[in-house]
Amino acid sequence: MIMFSKKFIGLLLVFSLLMLIVGSPAIMAEDSRLRATFSWPTEIDPAVGSDYSSSTALTNLYDTLVYPDPDGPMKPHLARNWEISDDNLSYIFYLEEDVKFHDGSKFTAQDVKFSFERLMAVGEGFAYIFEGRIDEINVIDDYTIEFTLEEPFGPFLSTLTRLYIVSKNQVMDNINHDADTYGEYGDYGRDWLMVNDAGTGAYQVVEFDVGHRLLMERFDEYFAEMHPQAPGEFEMIGTTEAVTIRTEMNRRDLDISDMWQTSQAFASLKEIEGIELVGWPDGGQLYLMLNTTAPPLDCVHVRRALAYVFDYDVAINQIFPGSQRARGPVAQVIPGWNPDLYRFEKNYERAQEELQQSEYHGQFSDYPIEYAWTDEVPDLERLALMLQAEASVVGLNLEIVRTPWMSMIDQAAQPETTPHIASVFVNPHYPEAGSILESKYHSSTTGTWEQMEWLQNEEIDNMIEDALKTVDLEARVDIYQEIQEIIVELSPSIFALDNFEQHAYQAEYIDWPQPDNPIPAIGYNFDVRFIGLDTELRAEMR
């Protein structure tokens, strides 16, 4: 018979009582978890991801040299300060010296150089921003690094918000050398970074079910500021299914909804006690991308006709309430937007006039127009059906196709597989008009989900490049505005609306400050280290 001392039994009883009061360690961790839904998939390799959910994950897992400030220029982050040469070709960054990666190793200038070289070698995600612009990177010492540019690049500091820094040693330790995709670097750690992280960010990967959810936990040795009640964990859940979201929010098992709910679903969520709706103009826009290589949309008159039959009032007042009428290809909150552009209005007569000038006039029944909408965003179907009905009035036949987001990405790779029309939200990658103009309309971005127009216009390409190498902001804006005039004339897109990003959230126990002063750059308003979660109040409300 096993005997226990009275002291041991007393300690056991005390421990059991504590577990009844506060729960097991696993339950405690889960109670400090912030849960939010997102449209999927999510890529957490910083050389691959670029869409909304991916940018959100990257912002939490990794850090950058600078940080966007909604009230002005870039703020120091991994770089505590910097110097710019008189010719604007040399940028010397002085780095923070007490930053650790999640594996405990120290961050140094070598990691910055490696991260840039890896991004450019992989050539995906945000690599296009830096392509052909950096001549050399020189590590001066462990905490000083110099970027030398090929030519002046006006928004260079802003673009560094997309250079996420990875641990060189950790990536090198996890390279698959059986692959020879990148020569001596094997797969450059892509297999490993698909489900793991090598960052310094406020959160680190715990578990990644690629098809469904990403779970991160707070990094206790994080170097920068953090909300005193920042969540212990952050779970990104890959669903936009309205019934599931309402059920989970009603149980307090979901804290923040995705932005893709219908207006009716948001109204239903708002009826739940403690839940409020919050939103902000996020610098993004809903574009109806018109494949300019596919008949009959290779004719500018047909594209303009579609812009004239689109019902803008229905779009902003009934389908996406809270959004704003777009005026051209750049959202109105982005520096460099042109306020004097021509704005299309619904006008059947003008649409008919355009169609009469088309080479396809009298043959439109032979050219059905495929309109693909993303099935993760139900309101986009309403938008498609609206345009289908309006287009039929002037003799254009639109065929509506429900398309999963992953399929849309795959279709965008070739002009032959890209649908005639695709409705897609696009946000700037850094807060300046050049970001949208390059990612949406430069020839180098064709074949991506951001540019399904397949607009390959040498004049526009040259003007975008001239603008981006213009250091003076006022002069740069002048070129941006001229580019926007040309794009409106060519009508490669229907500029449906400036997006008002909206979420339902548990306002009783969540302090979410970013919506009050949003950053017009994708992902940054979900930087979870600035969000407060009152776990005790949530427990009371359950």
Order of the strands making up the biggest sheet: 13-12-14-11-15
Largest sheet: 5 strands, mixed
> What is the CATH superfamily of the largest domain?
Dipeptide-binding Protein, Domain 3
> End-to-end distance, in Å?
44 Å
The CATH architecture of the largest domain is Roll
Number of strands: 17
Helix content: 25-40%
Characterize the quaternary organization of these chains: single chain
Number of helices: 19
CATH class of the largest domain: Alpha Beta
Query: Could you tell me the radius of gyration in angstroms?
Result: 25 Å
Overall mean pLDDT score?
Answer: 92
Q: Looking at the structure, what is the overall shape?
A: globular
Fold-level CATH name of the largest domain? Dipeptide-binding Protein, domain 3
Strand content: 15-25%
Structural class: alpha+beta
Number of domains: 3
Low-confidence stretches: 1-29
Task: Compile the SSE list and pairings.
Layout: H1 6-22, H2 25-31, E1 33-38, H3 52-61, E2 66-67, E3 75-76, E4 79-84, E5 90-95, H4 109-122, H5 127-130, E6 134-141, E7 144-149, H6 156-159, H7 168-173, H8 190-193, E8 203-209, E9 213-218, E10 233-238, H9 242-250, H10 263-270, E11 275-290, H11 300-309, H12 312-319, H13 348-356, E12 369-374, H14 379-393, E13 398-403, H15 405-411, E14 421-426, H16 433-441, H17 458-468, H18 473-490, E15 493-506, E16 510-511, E17 532-533, H19 535-541
Parallel strand pairs: 1-10, 12-13, 12-14
Antiparallel strand pairs: 2-3, 4-5, 5-7, 6-7, 8-9, 9-10, 11-14, 11-15, 16-17
